[in-house]
């Protein structure tokens, strides 16, 4: 049977939730209505593949979700990617049709204007680990969605009543954690270090909701130094930039876990800003807790980068350079 593909481009002014439905309800309905057709989503594009007759009906069905003009075009074999992008993303692209029916790739969170879902195999495993474990470590380079997906899952848990609080924290290593010596209120002191967490949060909730939830303590954003001595019950807790925690800080943070809570710890062990003789708590913790039940270690790589295509190329280039540098050094040669 000849399979053809088209892509439906959703205009930017139309929220994806309007097309896909809450919790992908419309998408699931299409999958049931057209069992011979595969659907999958990337950004504002809906890819549809199937036999001619079924494909035409499926496209018309998707179009009925629109309230404004949309643009439809045939997908070219390389999906419009540049040569270097095709090479890097080839494994993921080859799997796209099968993902339509794969529950792991369904939306993590749907807001008024955004549908957030895993885009790669590594991201899908990471989200599954978060769903199925009390503590999950997401370790990988910049741009792999570690913090963003964790935040989406946390906001979903909060809005659906799985937890009653969302707590976001990271070490303020740039200030040496000596926040008491910085001028201003506590918020003034820690805001610059927590800006990436705020940015992600604002993509999922409107400003008024965030302000209200922060005022009543439903959402708390704090530097790691202020977590000591607390027990966090009924909370979804995210520790970002965990590569910059010491072993003592990591132990302190993990032992804050209370009943009915879930933790996600994210970091990039290639971007450690601690003093050279200070070991990273994130690097040590996998050796210490790897065999503890209900704790998952999820590793992401350059193949999971979903930022500009150059980011993945940059990460690979640095990895190659650093591995060659180690081999050329006397210490590296001595370890061979």
TrEMBL record:
<keyword id="KW-0067">ATP-binding</keyword>
<keyword id="KW-0547">Nucleotide-binding</keyword>
<dbReference type="InterPro" id="IPR027417">
    <property type="entry name" value="P-loop_NTPase"/>
</dbReference>
<dbReference type="GO" id="GO:0005829">
    <property type="term" value="C:cytosol"/>
</dbReference>
<keyword id="KW-0963">Cytoplasm</keyword>
<dbReference type="InterPro" id="IPR003714">
    <property type="entry name" value="PhoH"/>
</dbReference>
<dbReference type="Pfam" id="PF02562">
    <property type="entry name" value="PhoH"/>
</dbReference>
<dbReference type="GO" id="GO:0005524">
    <property type="term" value="F:ATP binding"/>
</dbReference>
<dbReference type="InterPro" id="IPR051451">
    <property type="entry name" value="PhoH2-like"/>
</dbReference>
<protein>
    <recommendedName>
        <fullName>PhoH-like protein</fullName>
    </recommendedName>
</protein>
<comment type="similarity">
    <text>Belongs to the PhoH family.</text>
</comment>
<feature type="domain" description="PhoH-like protein">
    <location>
        <begin position="116"/>
        <end position="319"/>
    </location>
</feature>
């Amino acid at each position: 049977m000849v399979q053809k593909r088209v892509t439906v481009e959703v205009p930017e002014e139309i929220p994806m939730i309007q097309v896909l439905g809450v919790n992908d309800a419309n998408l699931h309905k299409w999958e049931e209505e057209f069992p011979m057709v595969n659907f999958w989503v990337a950004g504002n594009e809906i890819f549809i593949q199937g036999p001619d007759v079924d494909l035409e009906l499926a496209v018309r069905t998707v179009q009925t979700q629109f309230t404004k003009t949309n643009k439809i075009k045939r997908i070219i074999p390389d999906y419009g990617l540049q040569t270097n992008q095709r090479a890097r993303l080839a494994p993921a692209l080859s799997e796209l049709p099968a993902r339509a029916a794969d529950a792991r790739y369904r939306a993590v969170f749907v807001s008024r204007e955004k549908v957030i879902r895993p885009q790669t195999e590594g991201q899908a495993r990471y989200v599954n680990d978060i769903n199925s474990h009390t503590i999950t470590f997401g370790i990988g380079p910049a741009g792999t969605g570690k913090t963003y997906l964790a935040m989406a899952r946390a906001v979903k848990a909060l809005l659906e009543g799985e937890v009653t609080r969302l707590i976001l924290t990271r070490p303020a290593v740039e200030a040496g954690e000596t926040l008491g010596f910085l001028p201003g209120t506590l918020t003034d002191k820690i805001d610059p270090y927590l800006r990436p967490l705020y940015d992600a949060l604002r993509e999922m909730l409107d400003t008024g909701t965030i302000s209200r939830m922060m005022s009543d303590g439903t959402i708390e954003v704090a530097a790691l130094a202020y977590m000591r001595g607390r027990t966090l019950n009924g909370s979804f807790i995210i520790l970002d930039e965990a590569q910059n925690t010491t072993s003592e800080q990591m132990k302190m943070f993990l032992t804050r876990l209370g009943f009915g809570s879930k933790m996600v710890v994210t970091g990039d062990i290639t971007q450690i800003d601690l003093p050279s003789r200070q070991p990273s708590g994130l690097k040590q913790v996998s050796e210490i807790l790897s065999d503890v039940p209900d704790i998952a270690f999820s590793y992401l790589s350059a193949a999971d980068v979903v930022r500009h295509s150059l980011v993945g190329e940059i990460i690979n280039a640095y990895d190659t350079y650093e591995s060659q540098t180690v081999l050329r050094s006397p210490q590296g040669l001595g370890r061979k």
